[in-house]
Amino acid sequence: MNTLGHRARKRFGQHFLHDKGVIERLLRAINPQLNDLMVEIGPGQGALTLPLLHCLGYLEAIELDRDLAAYLVERCASEGNLRLHNVDSLTFDFSTLAHENRRLRVVGNLPYNISTPLLFHLLGQIGILEDMHFMLQREVVTRLAAKPGGKDYGRLSVMVQFYCEVEPLFTVKSGAFVPPPKVDSMVVRLIPHRPSLAPNISHGALNRVVSQAFSQRRKTLANALKGLLSSAELIALGIDPRQRPETISLEDYLALTRYWLKAQ
Question: Per-residue pLDDT tens for 48-66?
Fold first, then answer.
């Protein structure tokens, strides 16, 4: 299965997808169309890259591992136009790939160790994104899609749901990868809200309120938000200050942020 003879590197969090059934199911979920402007993050040994090239004819890809990058360029030379960027996706400016007013479709089997910071990096460039399809640790997808009231609901849930509709698609067992990870994965579809749920609220402002709330999730909302909003202000917004941060909806966090911004 490892035709490259490339040993997966721990520092890159590499687990190479090889299960043909999973690859076909993932392709159906992505549903690539000929004129799509698509970017694959972490193509690895090309399990998804090659079929995407067959569908699209042209594909942008980001691969940090130099050995894999060189291998992919050679392997795909006769399959289509692969434009490979040997850079770190966590610092890459994705807007450099968007052109002709076409938004990017982003796909990838993301390394577990960078999935959350990479999601936040992409959210900062949400205006140029059409949609995202990612294979992530199942626990992360559970958190992305979580609703208020449970232990999985937190800062990641609120921030991603502010930007995107979150649709968990299907679970992928660890045996679909070489080497197999210790946990199962899940494919998720993220579709940016258009228009934005709250155009006048910046990422920084919402993140400030949400981060402070969840930094002390065992405390009541009044205690967690001390210094930002008072109990009286929470009550004025119709929010019980004795509630805990994980019981508050996205709409409530938007209301809290609007109130806090007006008070600045």
Answer: 999 999 999 999 999 998 8
